[in-house]
Amino acid sequence: MTLATTKNQTRRRFLTTTAAAGAAAPTFIPARVMGFGGAVPPSDMIRLAGIGIESRGTTVLQTMLPHPDVRFVAIADVRADRRKAVKEMADQRNGDTQCDTYRDFREMLERDDIDAVLIATGDRWHAPASMLAAEAGKDVYSEKPCAISIDLAGRLADTIHRTGRIFQCGTQRRSNSNFIHAIELARTGKLGNLHTLHASIYSLRDSHDWLPAQPEPDPAVIDWDMWLGPAPWRPYNEAYVMKGQWRGYYDFDSGARLLDWGAHTLDLCQAAAGADGTTPVEYEPLDVAGDNVIRCTYANGVKLILRSTGWLGLGTCPVRFEGDEGWVETGDTGRIAVSLDSLRADLPAPTIRGGMPTNHTRNFLDCVKSRGRTTTNEDIMRSSHIACHAAAIAWKLNRKLTFDPSTEMFVGDNEANRMRSRAARQPWAV
Questions:
Q1: Helix (H, G, I), strand (E, B) or coil at 253
Q2: Helical spans, DSSP H, in 3-149
Q3: Adjacent-strand bridge partners of 117
Q4: How far apart, in whole angstroms, are the C-alpha atoms of residue 288 and residue 353?
Q5: How many Cβ atoms are within 10 Å of 239's Cβ, its own excluded?
Q6: Which terminal residue of the chain has fewer beta carbons within 10 Å of its beta carbon, N or C?
Q7: Which of 92, 72, 88, 70 is nearest to 80 (CA)?
Q8: CA 26 to CA 150: how far, in whole Å?
Q9: Average per-residue pLDDT in the chain?
Q10: What value does the mean pLDDT take over residues 372-379?
């Protein structure tokens, strides 16, 4: 049992004892304390905090705030405008002005009244912030990519196991009905023997330069040093911070942008193949004109093709699963295409678009309470993220690589193995 768990249980025991002690004079106990009239008693309330809540983080947070068993109590962000905006959102929902703000999330993590954190920073911070939060006794919902390297994906999963925390990777498509149905078709033999999986990715980019230097802002307005965190020192440019133009730059991004969509789509292919807990064993770049293509092969011979073009137009983040009797393809519109007439009658109607994490965040909140495992827990994240990174490394080196899932090492390739990890700038290393 972790320190935070003990403290939370102590808080709940105190509340229970207090309620029991006041049983002789119930007229003095507010209904909200007892949970009457639909109110959630404090003992059942999840006290949530956020780290780096911008556009995507706001979307995720908006699916958490309406739940009556959630109270958002604190926001940590390097930008003053984001601290203000998120506080206003939380205060409006809470009906008071009690949401606290922090520039340094480490100070926020010292609080013992926070049960869970939503982490929605840029890629470079996801794993370090998640690990520090877990060490502080907090459950973690982390936006993807959860780790910027193979090494960090493994270390993050190990930290979650060691600390006993609940972890959800923000690959919410595993919780959406159209993708669930497509996976089920593949897993139950409705397509015959599965032989090829297709996952969509962005056009890849791996830039090692940086934007022109601009004068650094006041740290109280934008804390540039904290924004960089474990990434190497680079001159400030507002486009990194205000416009999201850090993507595609090696210092800040995950796997040449492959994990932007690949963290979702390769993960769905892993589920369809029944490959959670392992990875493909071969990665071969096969770029063609106008498309980045990487062919990955599992130990059982099943192929996984990463590509950006040639889809049916069913929305962003499409996937396709092919067996020897038929195929299924789906994407973020929620629509599903199948090759077999026999499968069309049972296709679910589109319900939720792929980018919406409504079901996914509720699953996380339920697991915080039950201590059960989430839909995309740390082990699922580990294998799918490592596979993405291995594919990106093969593409960067422009050669076929062999990978051992049991050791999480490339076979006979020292150069590739050196790319499994990245140096972290002090004092931000974890």
A1: coil
A2: 3-21, 31-34, 55-64, 80-94, 105-109, 123-135
A3: 49, 140
A4: 31
A5: 13
A6: N
A7: 88
A8: 56
A9: 92
A10: 98
- Domain annotation for the chain: domains and CATH numbers: 3-172 (3.40.50.720), 178-205+255-350+379-418 (3.30.360.10)
pLDDT digits (tens, 9 = 90+) for 31-66: 444 454 556 788 899 999 999 999 999 999 999 999
59: number of CA atoms within 13 Å, CB side? 13
Contacts of 119 by beta carbon, 8 Å cutoff, 6+ apart: 50, 51, 52, 125, 126, 129, 130, 133, 140, 141, 142, 143
Summarised one tens digit per residue, pLDDT across range 323-374 is 999 999 999 999 999 999 999 988 988 888 889 999 999 999 999 999 999 9
- Indicate the length of the chain as a whole number: 430
- Residue 95, C-beta contacts closer than 8 angstroms, at least 6 positions apart: none
Judge contact between 202 and 196, C-beta under 8 A.
Answer: no
Residue 199 has φ and ψ, to the nearest 5°, of -125, 130
Q: How many angstroms from the chain centroid is the CA of residue 164?
A: 18
Strands across the sheet with 167-169, in order?
Answer: 100-102, 70-76, 46-51, 116-119, 139-142, 167-169
* pLDDT of the residue at 21: 37
**Token pair of 168 as six digits:** 């959800």
Tell me if 139 sits within 8 A of 368, measured CB to CB: yes
Q: 17 CB contacts (<8 Å, ≥6 apart)?
A: none
Neighbours of 154 (CB within 10 A): 20
What is the C-alpha separation between 248 and 293, in angstroms, rounded? 17
Q: Can you spell out the DSSP letters for 359-394?
A: HHHHHHHHHHHH----TT-HHHHHHHHHHHHHHHHH
Burial of 349 per CB tally in 10 Å (0-12, 13-18, 19+): exposed
Q: What letter does residue 291 receive in the DSSP assignment?
A: B
Q: What are phi and psi of 270, to 5 degrees?
A: -55, -45
Q: Give the pLDDT confidence score for residue 203 in this predicted structure.
A: 95
- Collapsing DSSP states into helix, strand and coil, what is residue 297? strand
| pLDDT tens string 220-234 | 999 999 999 999 999
Element (H, E) at 113: none
- Check pLDDT > 90 for residue 72: yes
pLDDT, position 308:
97
Q: Is the pLDDT of residue 411 over 80?
A: yes
End-to-end CA distance of the chain: 22
Q: Is 398 helix (H, G, I), strand (E, B) or coil?
A: coil
Residue 71 has pLDDT above 70, yes or no: yes
